[in-house]
Design goal:
The chain is mainly α. Helix content is 67%, strand content 4%. The N and C termini lie far apart (75 Å). It has 4 domains: 203 residues, no CATH class; 140 residues, no CATH class; 56 residues, no CATH class; 118 residues, Serine Threonine Protein Phosphatase 5, Tetratricopeptide repeat (Alpha Horseshoe), CATH 1.25.40.
Length: 563
Protein backbone atom coordinates (compact mmCIF):
# COMPACT_ATOMS: atom_id res chain seq x y z
CA UNK A 1 0.00 0.00 0.00
CA UNK A 2 1.38 3.40 -1.01
CA UNK A 3 0.22 6.18 1.33
CA UNK A 4 -0.08 9.88 0.52
CA UNK A 5 1.67 12.40 2.78
CA UNK A 6 -1.66 13.26 4.40
CA UNK A 7 -2.40 9.58 5.06
CA UNK A 8 1.08 9.07 6.55
CA UNK A 9 0.55 12.07 8.84
CA UNK A 10 -2.85 10.70 10.00
CA UNK A 11 -1.39 7.26 10.77
CA UNK A 12 1.65 8.69 12.61
CA UNK A 13 -0.62 10.84 14.77
CA UNK A 14 -2.80 7.80 15.43
CA UNK A 15 0.26 5.73 16.39
CA UNK A 16 1.50 8.36 18.86
CA UNK A 17 -1.89 9.21 20.37
CA UNK A 18 -4.17 6.24 19.61
CA UNK A 19 -6.33 7.06 22.64
CA UNK A 20 -7.25 10.50 21.31
CA UNK A 21 -10.83 10.43 19.89
CA UNK A 22 -9.95 13.03 17.22
CA UNK A 23 -7.11 10.91 15.82
CA UNK A 24 -9.29 7.79 16.07
CA UNK A 25 -11.96 9.50 13.98
CA UNK A 26 -9.40 10.59 11.37
CA UNK A 27 -7.93 7.07 11.19
CA UNK A 28 -11.43 5.62 10.75
CA UNK A 29 -12.16 8.00 7.86
CA UNK A 30 -8.79 7.14 6.29
CA UNK A 31 -9.52 3.39 6.41
CA UNK A 32 -12.75 3.75 4.43
CA UNK A 33 -11.13 6.19 1.97
CA UNK A 34 -8.37 3.63 1.30
CA UNK A 35 -10.94 0.86 0.79
CA UNK A 36 -12.92 2.97 -1.68
CA UNK A 37 -9.84 4.26 -3.56
CA UNK A 38 -8.43 0.79 -4.10
CA UNK A 39 -11.75 -0.82 -5.05
CA UNK A 40 -12.77 1.98 -7.44
CA UNK A 41 -9.30 2.06 -9.06
CA UNK A 42 -9.70 -1.64 -9.86
CA UNK A 43 -13.09 -0.99 -11.48
CA UNK A 44 -11.85 1.94 -13.60
CA UNK A 45 -8.68 0.15 -14.69
CA UNK A 46 -10.56 -3.16 -15.12
CA UNK A 47 -8.13 -4.98 -12.81
CA UNK A 48 -8.98 -8.08 -10.80
CA UNK A 49 -10.50 -7.05 -7.46
CA UNK A 50 -9.73 -10.50 -6.04
CA UNK A 51 -5.99 -9.99 -6.59
CA UNK A 52 -6.09 -6.50 -5.09
CA UNK A 53 -7.78 -7.59 -1.84
CA UNK A 54 -5.23 -10.41 -1.48
CA UNK A 55 -2.44 -7.82 -1.58
CA UNK A 56 -4.21 -5.62 1.00
CA UNK A 57 -5.51 -8.56 3.08
CA UNK A 58 -4.16 -7.45 6.48
CA UNK A 59 -5.16 -3.81 6.04
CA UNK A 60 -8.70 -4.48 4.84
CA UNK A 61 -9.47 -7.35 7.23
CA UNK A 62 -7.59 -6.42 10.41
CA UNK A 63 -6.72 -2.71 10.08
CA UNK A 64 -2.98 -3.49 10.26
CA UNK A 65 -0.59 -0.92 8.82
CA UNK A 66 3.24 -0.99 8.88
CA UNK A 67 3.14 2.75 9.61
CA UNK A 68 1.45 2.01 12.97
CA UNK A 69 3.02 -1.40 13.62
CA UNK A 70 6.69 -2.00 12.85
CA UNK A 71 6.07 -5.73 13.14
CA UNK A 72 2.91 -5.62 10.96
CA UNK A 73 3.85 -8.79 9.07
CA UNK A 74 4.34 -10.78 12.29
CA UNK A 75 1.03 -9.52 13.72
CA UNK A 76 -0.76 -10.44 10.49
CA UNK A 77 0.77 -13.93 10.50
CA UNK A 78 -0.38 -14.47 14.11
CA UNK A 79 -4.01 -13.53 13.59
CA UNK A 80 -4.52 -14.64 9.99
CA UNK A 81 -6.85 -17.61 9.82
CA UNK A 82 -6.62 -20.36 7.19
CA UNK A 83 -10.33 -20.03 6.48
CA UNK A 84 -13.69 -18.90 7.79
CA UNK A 85 -15.57 -22.20 7.67
CA UNK A 86 -16.31 -24.76 10.35
CA UNK A 87 -18.68 -22.84 12.63
CA UNK A 88 -22.44 -22.69 13.10
CA UNK A 89 -22.78 -19.47 11.10
CA UNK A 90 -21.11 -18.33 7.91
CA UNK A 91 -18.33 -15.86 8.74
CA UNK A 92 -16.99 -13.36 6.20
CA UNK A 93 -14.04 -11.00 6.42
CA UNK A 94 -13.99 -7.58 4.73
CA UNK A 95 -12.18 -8.96 1.67
CA UNK A 96 -14.84 -11.67 1.28
CA UNK A 97 -17.54 -9.02 1.54
CA UNK A 98 -15.90 -6.74 -1.05
CA UNK A 99 -15.50 -9.52 -3.64
CA UNK A 100 -19.05 -10.78 -3.01
CA UNK A 101 -20.43 -7.23 -3.27
CA UNK A 102 -18.63 -6.69 -6.58
CA UNK A 103 -19.93 -9.98 -8.01
CA UNK A 104 -23.46 -9.16 -6.87
CA UNK A 105 -23.26 -5.68 -8.41
CA UNK A 106 -22.14 -6.82 -11.86
CA UNK A 107 -24.85 -9.48 -11.76
CA UNK A 108 -27.54 -6.87 -11.17
CA UNK A 109 -28.98 -5.39 -8.01
CA UNK A 110 -31.94 -7.74 -8.09
CA UNK A 111 -29.99 -10.98 -8.39
CA UNK A 112 -29.91 -11.80 -4.69
CA UNK A 113 -33.55 -10.80 -4.24
CA UNK A 114 -34.63 -12.91 -7.20
CA UNK A 115 -32.66 -15.92 -6.01
CA UNK A 116 -34.31 -15.57 -2.61
CA UNK A 117 -37.77 -15.23 -4.21
CA UNK A 118 -37.07 -18.32 -6.34
CA UNK A 119 -36.10 -20.30 -3.26
CA UNK A 120 -39.31 -19.27 -1.47
CA UNK A 121 -41.46 -20.00 -4.55
CA UNK A 122 -39.94 -23.46 -5.02
CA UNK A 123 -40.62 -24.24 -1.37
CA UNK A 124 -44.25 -23.13 -1.77
CA UNK A 125 -44.60 -25.24 -4.93
CA UNK A 126 -43.22 -28.24 -3.05
CA UNK A 127 -45.84 -27.69 -0.31
CA UNK A 128 -48.69 -27.62 -2.87
CA UNK A 129 -47.43 -30.82 -4.53
CA UNK A 130 -47.07 -32.49 -1.14
CA UNK A 131 -50.63 -31.49 -0.20
CA UNK A 132 -51.99 -32.83 -3.50
CA UNK A 133 -50.30 -36.19 -2.85
CA UNK A 134 -51.67 -36.26 0.70
CA UNK A 135 -55.24 -35.60 -0.44
CA UNK A 136 -54.94 -38.20 -3.20
CA UNK A 137 -53.73 -40.76 -0.67
CA UNK A 138 -56.61 -39.89 1.68
CA UNK A 139 -59.08 -40.24 -1.21
CA UNK A 140 -57.59 -43.61 -2.10
CA UNK A 141 -57.97 -44.88 1.48
CA UNK A 142 -61.57 -43.67 1.63
CA UNK A 143 -62.52 -45.38 -1.65
CA UNK A 144 -60.79 -48.68 -0.89
CA UNK A 145 -62.60 -48.87 2.45
CA UNK A 146 -65.96 -48.69 0.67
CA UNK A 147 -67.72 -51.90 -0.46
CA UNK A 148 -66.77 -52.54 -4.08
CA UNK A 149 -63.96 -49.99 -3.94
CA UNK A 150 -61.43 -50.76 -6.68
CA UNK A 151 -57.86 -49.67 -7.43
CA UNK A 152 -59.00 -48.85 -11.00
CA UNK A 153 -61.24 -46.11 -9.66
CA UNK A 154 -58.34 -44.61 -7.72
CA UNK A 155 -56.12 -44.68 -10.82
CA UNK A 156 -58.90 -43.07 -12.88
CA UNK A 157 -59.25 -40.24 -10.34
CA UNK A 158 -55.47 -39.64 -10.28
CA UNK A 159 -55.48 -39.54 -14.10
CA UNK A 160 -58.41 -37.10 -14.01
CA UNK A 161 -56.35 -34.81 -11.74
CA UNK A 162 -53.52 -34.81 -14.30
CA UNK A 163 -55.92 -34.00 -17.15
CA UNK A 164 -57.56 -31.27 -15.07
CA UNK A 165 -54.18 -29.70 -14.41
CA UNK A 166 -53.23 -29.82 -18.11
CA UNK A 167 -56.56 -28.30 -19.20
CA UNK A 168 -56.32 -25.51 -16.61
CA UNK A 169 -52.79 -24.72 -17.78
CA UNK A 170 -53.95 -24.48 -21.42
CA UNK A 171 -56.88 -22.21 -20.44
CA UNK A 172 -54.46 -19.85 -18.66
CA UNK A 173 -52.21 -19.73 -21.73
CA UNK A 174 -55.22 -18.96 -23.96
CA UNK A 175 -56.47 -16.19 -21.65
CA UNK A 176 -53.03 -14.55 -21.82
CA UNK A 177 -53.24 -14.52 -25.62
CA UNK A 178 -50.54 -17.12 -26.23
CA UNK A 179 -50.38 -18.51 -29.78
CA UNK A 180 -51.41 -22.19 -29.91
CA UNK A 181 -50.78 -24.16 -33.16
CA UNK A 182 -53.69 -25.99 -34.85
CA UNK A 183 -52.27 -29.46 -34.06
CA UNK A 184 -52.00 -28.58 -30.38
CA UNK A 185 -55.56 -27.19 -30.39
CA UNK A 186 -56.88 -30.48 -31.77
CA UNK A 187 -54.92 -32.40 -29.14
CA UNK A 188 -56.31 -30.15 -26.38
CA UNK A 189 -59.84 -30.61 -27.67
CA UNK A 190 -59.45 -34.40 -27.56
CA UNK A 191 -58.03 -34.22 -24.01
CA UNK A 192 -61.02 -32.10 -22.95
CA UNK A 193 -63.45 -34.71 -24.35
CA UNK A 194 -61.54 -37.57 -22.67
CA UNK A 195 -61.62 -35.66 -19.39
CA UNK A 196 -65.39 -35.08 -19.55
CA UNK A 197 -66.05 -38.78 -20.28
CA UNK A 198 -63.75 -39.80 -17.43
CA UNK A 199 -65.46 -37.44 -15.00
CA UNK A 200 -68.90 -38.81 -15.98
CA UNK A 201 -67.72 -42.39 -15.39
CA UNK A 202 -66.08 -41.52 -12.07
CA UNK A 203 -69.21 -39.63 -10.99
CA UNK A 204 -71.33 -42.76 -11.38
CA UNK A 205 -68.85 -44.81 -9.30
CA UNK A 206 -68.37 -42.28 -6.48
CA UNK A 207 -72.11 -41.54 -6.49
CA UNK A 208 -72.72 -45.10 -5.37
CA UNK A 209 -70.80 -44.50 -2.10
CA UNK A 210 -73.33 -45.22 0.62
CA UNK A 211 -71.77 -43.44 3.59
CA UNK A 212 -72.67 -39.74 3.86
CA UNK A 213 -69.50 -39.16 5.87
CA UNK A 214 -67.36 -40.75 3.13
CA UNK A 215 -69.16 -38.69 0.45
CA UNK A 216 -68.46 -35.50 2.36
CA UNK A 217 -64.81 -36.46 2.86
CA UNK A 218 -64.41 -37.30 -0.85
CA UNK A 219 -65.93 -33.97 -1.83
CA UNK A 220 -63.58 -32.14 0.53
CA UNK A 221 -60.58 -34.04 -0.95
CA UNK A 222 -61.64 -33.03 -4.46
CA UNK A 223 -61.95 -29.37 -3.44
CA UNK A 224 -58.53 -29.38 -1.73
CA UNK A 225 -56.87 -31.04 -4.73
CA UNK A 226 -58.47 -28.47 -7.05
CA UNK A 227 -57.31 -25.57 -4.88
CA UNK A 228 -53.76 -26.91 -4.61
CA UNK A 229 -53.55 -27.56 -8.37
CA UNK A 230 -54.55 -23.93 -8.98
CA UNK A 231 -52.04 -22.79 -6.37
CA UNK A 232 -49.29 -24.94 -7.88
CA UNK A 233 -49.94 -23.46 -11.33
CA UNK A 234 -49.76 -19.93 -9.88
CA UNK A 235 -46.38 -20.73 -8.34
CA UNK A 236 -45.13 -22.44 -11.53
CA UNK A 237 -45.91 -19.23 -13.44
CA UNK A 238 -44.09 -17.19 -10.77
CA UNK A 239 -41.05 -19.50 -10.94
CA UNK A 240 -40.99 -19.15 -14.76
CA UNK A 241 -41.09 -15.31 -14.47
CA UNK A 242 -38.29 -15.27 -11.90
CA UNK A 243 -36.13 -17.55 -14.06
CA UNK A 244 -36.74 -15.26 -17.05
CA UNK A 245 -35.65 -12.26 -14.94
CA UNK A 246 -32.53 -14.13 -13.83
CA UNK A 247 -31.70 -14.97 -17.44
CA UNK A 248 -32.11 -11.28 -18.41
CA UNK A 249 -29.82 -10.21 -15.59
CA UNK A 250 -27.16 -12.66 -16.68
CA UNK A 251 -27.48 -11.40 -20.27
CA UNK A 252 -26.90 -7.76 -19.33
CA UNK A 253 -24.36 -8.21 -16.53
CA UNK A 254 -21.46 -7.34 -18.87
CA UNK A 255 -23.19 -4.21 -20.18
CA UNK A 256 -22.77 -2.18 -16.96
CA UNK A 257 -20.41 0.78 -17.19
CA UNK A 258 -17.62 1.30 -14.59
CA UNK A 259 -19.46 4.40 -13.33
CA UNK A 260 -22.63 2.40 -12.64
CA UNK A 261 -20.67 -0.31 -10.82
CA UNK A 262 -18.78 2.28 -8.78
CA UNK A 263 -21.98 4.11 -7.78
CA UNK A 264 -23.60 0.86 -6.63
CA UNK A 265 -20.52 -0.17 -4.62
CA UNK A 266 -20.14 3.27 -3.06
CA UNK A 267 -23.72 3.09 -1.77
CA UNK A 268 -23.12 -0.28 -0.07
CA UNK A 269 -19.70 0.69 1.33
CA UNK A 270 -21.14 3.92 2.76
CA UNK A 271 -23.96 1.92 4.36
CA UNK A 272 -21.49 -0.50 6.00
CA UNK A 273 -19.35 2.44 7.11
CA UNK A 274 -22.38 3.95 8.90
CA UNK A 275 -23.11 0.59 10.57
CA UNK A 276 -19.53 0.39 11.88
CA UNK A 277 -19.81 3.97 13.18
CA UNK A 278 -23.08 3.07 14.88
CA UNK A 279 -21.45 0.04 16.55
CA UNK A 280 -18.93 2.42 18.16
CA UNK A 281 -21.41 5.23 18.82
CA UNK A 282 -23.65 2.96 20.91
CA UNK A 283 -20.83 2.77 23.44
CA UNK A 284 -19.99 6.48 23.01
CA UNK A 285 -16.78 5.69 21.13
CA UNK A 286 -15.20 6.97 17.94
CA UNK A 287 -15.03 4.42 15.13
CA UNK A 288 -11.36 3.59 14.71
CA UNK A 289 -10.72 0.98 12.01
CA UNK A 290 -6.95 0.77 12.36
CA UNK A 291 -5.50 -1.54 14.99
CA UNK A 292 -3.93 0.43 17.83
CA UNK A 293 -0.38 -0.30 19.01
CA UNK A 294 -0.57 -3.23 21.45
CA UNK A 295 -4.08 -4.16 20.32
CA UNK A 296 -5.03 -7.50 18.77
CA UNK A 297 -7.81 -8.58 16.44
CA UNK A 298 -9.70 -11.73 17.30
CA UNK A 299 -9.30 -14.85 15.20
CA UNK A 300 -12.20 -16.49 13.41
CA UNK A 301 -11.80 -19.54 15.66
CA UNK A 302 -12.49 -17.36 18.73
CA UNK A 303 -15.57 -15.87 17.05
CA UNK A 304 -16.81 -19.40 16.32
CA UNK A 305 -16.33 -20.35 20.00
CA UNK A 306 -18.46 -17.39 21.12
CA UNK A 307 -21.21 -18.20 18.61
CA UNK A 308 -21.17 -21.86 19.67
CA UNK A 309 -21.60 -20.86 23.31
CA UNK A 310 -24.49 -18.52 22.55
CA UNK A 311 -26.30 -21.23 20.56
CA UNK A 312 -25.58 -23.66 23.40
CA UNK A 313 -27.23 -21.49 26.04
CA UNK A 314 -29.93 -20.00 23.80
CA UNK A 315 -30.93 -23.04 21.71
CA UNK A 316 -34.12 -21.43 20.35
CA UNK A 317 -32.27 -18.48 18.84
CA UNK A 318 -32.62 -19.90 15.32
CA UNK A 319 -36.19 -21.17 15.79
CA UNK A 320 -38.07 -18.62 13.67
CA UNK A 321 -39.74 -18.24 10.27
CA UNK A 322 -36.93 -16.07 8.92
CA UNK A 323 -34.48 -18.95 9.11
CA UNK A 324 -36.86 -21.05 7.01
CA UNK A 325 -36.99 -18.33 4.35
CA UNK A 326 -33.54 -16.71 4.40
CA UNK A 327 -31.33 -19.10 6.34
CA UNK A 328 -29.26 -18.44 9.45
CA UNK A 329 -27.80 -14.95 9.89
CA UNK A 330 -24.26 -14.40 8.65
CA UNK A 331 -21.36 -12.81 10.52
CA UNK A 332 -19.27 -10.02 8.98
CA UNK A 333 -16.01 -9.23 10.80
CA UNK A 334 -15.00 -5.61 10.26
CA UNK A 335 -12.01 -3.64 11.60
CA UNK A 336 -13.52 -1.31 14.16
CA UNK A 337 -14.40 -0.88 17.80
CA UNK A 338 -17.67 -1.01 19.70
CA UNK A 339 -20.27 -3.76 19.99
CA UNK A 340 -21.80 -6.06 17.37
CA UNK A 341 -25.18 -5.17 15.89
CA UNK A 342 -27.75 -6.87 13.67
CA UNK A 343 -28.26 -5.48 10.17
CA UNK A 344 -31.67 -6.76 9.07
CA UNK A 345 -31.44 -5.72 5.41
CA UNK A 346 -28.80 -8.37 4.65
CA UNK A 347 -29.63 -10.72 7.56
CA UNK A 348 -26.12 -10.08 8.85
CA UNK A 349 -24.47 -9.46 12.23
CA UNK A 350 -21.68 -6.90 11.96
CA UNK A 351 -18.93 -7.68 14.47
CA UNK A 352 -16.16 -5.10 15.13
CA UNK A 353 -12.78 -6.82 15.56
CA UNK A 354 -11.74 -4.57 18.46
CA UNK A 355 -14.66 -4.90 20.92
CA UNK A 356 -14.95 -2.70 24.00
CA UNK A 357 -12.78 -3.98 26.89
CA UNK A 358 -11.67 -6.82 24.56
CA UNK A 359 -14.90 -8.63 25.50
CA UNK A 360 -15.71 -10.42 22.25
CA UNK A 361 -18.33 -12.64 23.90
CA UNK A 362 -20.36 -9.66 25.12
CA UNK A 363 -20.08 -7.98 21.73
CA UNK A 364 -21.33 -10.96 19.70
CA UNK A 365 -24.06 -11.73 22.26
CA UNK A 366 -25.34 -8.17 21.83
CA UNK A 367 -25.61 -8.69 18.06
CA UNK A 368 -27.38 -12.03 18.40
CA UNK A 369 -29.93 -10.84 20.98
CA UNK A 370 -30.72 -7.95 18.59
CA UNK A 371 -31.31 -10.59 15.92
CA UNK A 372 -33.50 -12.63 18.29
CA UNK A 373 -35.64 -9.60 19.10
CA UNK A 374 -35.88 -8.52 15.46
CA UNK A 375 -37.16 -11.91 14.23
CA UNK A 376 -39.65 -12.15 17.12
CA UNK A 377 -42.36 -10.38 15.12
CA UNK A 378 -45.09 -11.14 17.66
CA UNK A 379 -42.92 -9.73 20.49
CA UNK A 380 -43.46 -12.85 22.61
CA UNK A 381 -40.06 -12.59 24.28
CA UNK A 382 -40.47 -8.91 25.24
CA UNK A 383 -44.04 -9.49 26.42
CA UNK A 384 -42.89 -12.32 28.67
CA UNK A 385 -39.92 -10.28 29.95
CA UNK A 386 -42.23 -7.33 30.67
CA UNK A 387 -44.19 -9.50 33.13
CA UNK A 388 -41.26 -9.64 35.57
CA UNK A 389 -42.03 -7.64 38.76
CA UNK A 390 -39.10 -5.32 38.09
CA UNK A 391 -40.71 -4.16 34.81
CA UNK A 392 -44.33 -3.79 35.89
CA UNK A 393 -44.20 0.02 35.47
CA UNK A 394 -42.06 0.06 32.31
CA UNK A 395 -44.03 1.36 29.33
CA UNK A 396 -41.16 2.12 26.93
CA UNK A 397 -40.32 -0.68 24.49
CA UNK A 398 -36.85 0.84 23.95
CA UNK A 399 -36.08 0.73 27.67
CA UNK A 400 -37.41 -2.81 27.91
CA UNK A 401 -35.20 -3.90 25.02
CA UNK A 402 -32.15 -2.23 26.56
CA UNK A 403 -32.79 -3.95 29.90
CA UNK A 404 -33.21 -7.33 28.18
CA UNK A 405 -29.97 -6.87 26.22
CA UNK A 406 -28.08 -6.02 29.43
CA UNK A 407 -29.48 -9.08 31.23
CA UNK A 408 -28.80 -11.25 28.17
CA UNK A 409 -25.14 -10.22 28.20
CA UNK A 410 -24.94 -11.14 31.89
CA UNK A 411 -26.59 -14.47 31.11
CA UNK A 412 -24.09 -15.24 28.35
CA UNK A 413 -20.95 -13.95 30.04
CA UNK A 414 -21.52 -14.84 33.72
CA UNK A 415 -24.55 -17.01 34.48
CA UNK A 416 -23.59 -19.64 31.88
CA UNK A 417 -20.22 -19.96 33.55
CA UNK A 418 -21.85 -20.73 36.87
CA UNK A 419 -21.59 -17.23 38.40
CA UNK A 420 -24.89 -16.08 39.90
CA UNK A 421 -25.20 -12.41 39.03
CA UNK A 422 -28.82 -12.00 37.96
CA UNK A 423 -31.59 -11.52 40.54
CA UNK A 424 -33.63 -14.64 41.36
CA UNK A 425 -36.66 -13.66 39.23
CA UNK A 426 -34.51 -12.75 36.22
CA UNK A 427 -32.51 -15.98 36.48
CA UNK A 428 -35.70 -18.01 36.65
CA UNK A 429 -37.03 -16.19 33.57
CA UNK A 430 -33.86 -16.91 31.58
CA UNK A 431 -33.96 -20.57 32.57
CA UNK A 432 -37.56 -20.80 31.37
CA UNK A 433 -37.40 -18.66 28.20
CA UNK A 434 -33.79 -18.80 27.00
CA UNK A 435 -31.82 -21.69 28.51
CA UNK A 436 -31.73 -25.28 27.21
CA UNK A 437 -34.37 -27.64 28.62
CA UNK A 438 -33.16 -29.06 31.93
CA UNK A 439 -34.90 -32.39 31.41
CA UNK A 440 -33.39 -33.07 27.99
CA UNK A 441 -30.00 -34.03 26.59
CA UNK A 442 -27.63 -31.49 25.05
CA UNK A 443 -28.56 -31.29 21.35
CA UNK A 444 -26.25 -29.78 18.68
CA UNK A 445 -27.79 -27.21 16.34
CA UNK A 446 -27.94 -29.49 13.28
CA UNK A 447 -30.02 -32.05 15.23
CA UNK A 448 -32.62 -29.66 16.60
CA UNK A 449 -36.17 -30.27 15.45
CA UNK A 450 -36.64 -26.88 13.79
CA UNK A 451 -33.51 -27.27 11.63
CA UNK A 452 -34.97 -30.15 9.58
CA UNK A 453 -38.37 -31.48 8.61
CA UNK A 454 -39.50 -35.06 9.28
CA UNK A 455 -38.28 -36.25 5.88
CA UNK A 456 -34.80 -34.82 6.45
CA UNK A 457 -34.73 -36.21 9.99
CA UNK A 458 -35.65 -39.71 8.78
CA UNK A 459 -33.04 -39.51 6.03
CA UNK A 460 -30.37 -38.48 8.52
CA UNK A 461 -31.37 -41.31 10.85
CA UNK A 462 -31.12 -43.84 8.01
CA UNK A 463 -27.69 -42.54 7.07
CA UNK A 464 -26.49 -42.90 10.68
CA UNK A 465 -27.90 -46.42 10.91
CA UNK A 466 -26.00 -47.35 7.73
CA UNK A 467 -22.77 -45.97 9.20
CA UNK A 468 -23.21 -47.91 12.47
CA UNK A 469 -24.10 -51.20 10.77
CA UNK A 470 -20.44 -52.14 10.44
CA UNK A 471 -19.70 -51.60 14.15
CA UNK A 472 -18.19 -48.69 16.09
CA UNK A 473 -14.50 -49.13 15.27
CA UNK A 474 -14.25 -47.02 12.10
CA UNK A 475 -16.75 -44.39 13.28
CA UNK A 476 -15.21 -40.99 14.20
CA UNK A 477 -16.14 -39.41 17.58
CA UNK A 478 -18.18 -36.57 16.06
CA UNK A 479 -20.33 -39.08 14.14
CA UNK A 480 -20.87 -41.11 17.33
CA UNK A 481 -21.99 -37.93 19.10
CA UNK A 482 -24.55 -37.05 16.39
CA UNK A 483 -25.71 -40.69 16.21
CA UNK A 484 -26.27 -40.81 19.99
CA UNK A 485 -28.49 -37.71 19.79
CA UNK A 486 -30.52 -38.99 16.82
CA UNK A 487 -31.03 -42.38 18.47
CA UNK A 488 -32.18 -40.67 21.68
CA UNK A 489 -34.66 -38.57 19.70
CA UNK A 490 -36.08 -41.78 18.20
CA UNK A 491 -36.48 -43.31 21.67
CA UNK A 492 -33.69 -45.86 21.07
CA UNK A 493 -32.07 -45.23 24.44
CA UNK A 494 -29.99 -48.41 24.70
CA UNK A 495 -28.36 -47.80 21.32
CA UNK A 496 -27.83 -44.13 22.21
CA UNK A 497 -26.04 -45.18 25.39
CA UNK A 498 -23.85 -47.61 23.42
CA UNK A 499 -22.70 -44.79 21.12
CA UNK A 500 -21.92 -42.56 24.11
CA UNK A 501 -19.96 -45.28 25.89
CA UNK A 502 -17.77 -45.83 22.80
CA UNK A 503 -17.43 -42.06 22.38
CA UNK A 504 -16.16 -41.65 25.96
CA UNK A 505 -13.61 -44.43 25.42
CA UNK A 506 -12.29 -42.74 22.28
CA UNK A 507 -12.57 -39.16 23.54
CA UNK A 508 -12.58 -39.09 27.37
CA UNK A 509 -12.55 -35.29 27.49
CA UNK A 510 -15.70 -34.85 25.34
CA UNK A 511 -17.52 -31.91 26.93
CA UNK A 512 -21.12 -33.17 27.07
CA UNK A 513 -20.97 -36.97 26.63
CA UNK A 514 -21.19 -37.84 30.36
CA UNK A 515 -24.01 -35.29 30.81
CA UNK A 516 -26.06 -36.93 28.06
CA UNK A 517 -25.25 -40.39 29.44
CA UNK A 518 -26.86 -39.30 32.71
CA UNK A 519 -30.08 -38.36 30.91
CA UNK A 520 -30.11 -41.55 28.84
CA UNK A 521 -29.71 -43.66 31.99
CA UNK A 522 -32.58 -41.73 33.59
CA UNK A 523 -34.77 -42.71 30.61
CA UNK A 524 -33.68 -46.34 31.10
CA UNK A 525 -34.52 -46.12 34.83
CA UNK A 526 -30.88 -46.87 35.72
CA UNK A 527 -30.74 -44.33 38.54
CA UNK A 528 -27.38 -45.23 40.08
CA UNK A 529 -25.64 -45.14 36.72
CA UNK A 530 -27.30 -41.80 35.94
CA UNK A 531 -26.00 -40.41 39.25
CA UNK A 532 -22.50 -41.64 38.44
CA UNK A 533 -22.48 -40.06 34.97
CA UNK A 534 -23.79 -36.73 36.26
CA UNK A 535 -21.15 -36.82 39.02
CA UNK A 536 -18.39 -37.41 36.44
CA UNK A 537 -19.69 -34.48 34.42
CA UNK A 538 -19.76 -32.17 37.48
CA UNK A 539 -16.20 -33.17 38.36
CA UNK A 540 -14.90 -32.31 34.88
CA UNK A 541 -17.08 -29.14 34.55
CA UNK A 542 -17.46 -27.85 38.12
CA UNK A 543 -18.01 -24.18 37.21
CA UNK A 544 -20.81 -24.16 34.63
CA UNK A 545 -24.58 -23.83 34.34
CA UNK A 546 -24.74 -27.41 33.09
CA UNK A 547 -23.11 -28.58 36.34
CA UNK A 548 -25.87 -26.94 38.40
CA UNK A 549 -28.47 -28.78 36.27
CA UNK A 550 -26.58 -32.06 36.73
CA UNK A 551 -26.47 -31.51 40.51
CA UNK A 552 -30.22 -30.87 40.57
CA UNK A 553 -30.74 -34.17 38.71
CA UNK A 554 -28.48 -35.99 41.19
CA UNK A 555 -30.49 -34.61 44.13
CA UNK A 556 -33.79 -35.66 42.55
CA UNK A 557 -32.48 -39.13 41.78
CA UNK A 558 -31.12 -39.56 45.30
CA UNK A 559 -34.40 -38.43 46.86
CA UNK A 560 -36.27 -40.81 44.55
CA UNK A 561 -33.96 -43.69 45.49
CA UNK A 562 -34.34 -43.11 49.23
CA UNK A 563 -38.11 -42.59 49.09
Amino acid sequence: MTYSEQALSTLRNFKEKSGDPAFQRQAGMLYWNLVEENVFACIREKRDIGEMVKQEYDLFNFGISPVVHEDAQVIGDNIRDAGTAGGLLKISLMTDWIVELYQKTISGDRLETLERELKVAERQLSRHEHEIRNQQQLRKELLLREPGGKAETVEALDHADKLSRYILKIKRRTMKGAFIPVDEKRKNCQIQQDYEKLITRIGRITGSVSSLEAKSALKQCAEQIELNIAGALDIEELVARIKDDLANIQARQHALSPMEIEAALRKEIDYLKDMVKLAAKRLRLEASCFMKPGETAFKVAEVNECIGRIFEFDPEIAHNQRVMLFGLPEILLVPGNGRALYEWKSNRIIVPLFPHDANLMASIAAGLIEYRLDVDEEKKLLTSYNKLPRHKDVKSVIRLKNDLIKDYLIWMTSECSGYRVLAKEERKWFEQEIAPAKNDISVPLECRSYMMNSEEFNKKCREMEAVLEGGFDPVPPETLWIASVLLFQQGKFNQSLECLEVLVQEQPDHKMASYNMGHVCMKLMRKQEAIQHFAVFCKSNPQSWWASVALDNIRRLQIGSSA
